[in-house]
Each structure stands twice: as structure tokens, then as C-alpha cells.
Amino acid sequence: MKITGIKAVCSETEQLKGYYNGHYVQINYNLRTGETWGDYHYSLGQNSWTVYHDPDIITVCNAEEPMTMDEICIVIKDAVWHHESYEQNFR
Predict the structure, then answer these.
(1) What is d(CA 65, CA 14) in angstroms, rounded to the nearest whole number?
(2) 26 near 41, Cβ under 8 Å?
(3) Is 90 a member of any domain?
């Protein structure tokens, strides 16, 4: 599985202080290109998000605290597995 951009996403999460701070990074992954990136948001309760109208782009998670490159890789692989399972079983 090809994943690019993990180091940049990791850097984006470095200053996060936890759920109750209101700052978080929405981590996304492009299934076709293997690119991952983060969208910074501020919202108490995480009521802001970025929507992509491209079926190849999935939202992986909202990171509210710093994440390592390994942790990001794990959540991406998990999100891809769940996405593929859903596509196989419900579409």
C-alpha cells in the first residue's frame, strides 16, 4: 500500500493539545494516488469538516492530539480496510 505525505501530516499534528482544546486536523487519504494530507479545523465538538466530492478521497480520522507517523499509517490502513469492506458488502 502506497502512502505519501505522512511526515507532513505528522508535523501538522505536533501542536495539538487534545479534544477539549477545539483544534484538530482532519486526516484524509486518496485511494487512487496514495496521498495523505490534513485539513486544520477549530471547532468545539468537532462540528467543522472538509467535504471532498471525489469517491477516491476518504476521511481517515480527526486527530486532536499529536500522532506519530506509525500511528497515522495504522489509522490509514484501518480506514482503507473499512472502506473496502463497506464497498464489497453494501454496494
Answers:
(1) 7
(2) yes
(3) no
pTM equals: 0.93
53, burial (CB in 10 Å: exposed 0-12, middle 13-18, buried 19+): exposed
Query: Which pLDDT tens digit goes with each residue over 8-44?
Result: 999 999 999 998 899 999 999 999 999 999 999 999 8
Residue 91 lies in a domain: no
Q: Which domain holds residue 70?
A: 6-85
How many domains does the chain contain in total? 1
**H helix intervals, 3-68:** 6-13
pLDDT tens digits, one per residue of 44-73: 888 899 999 999 999 999 999 999 999 999
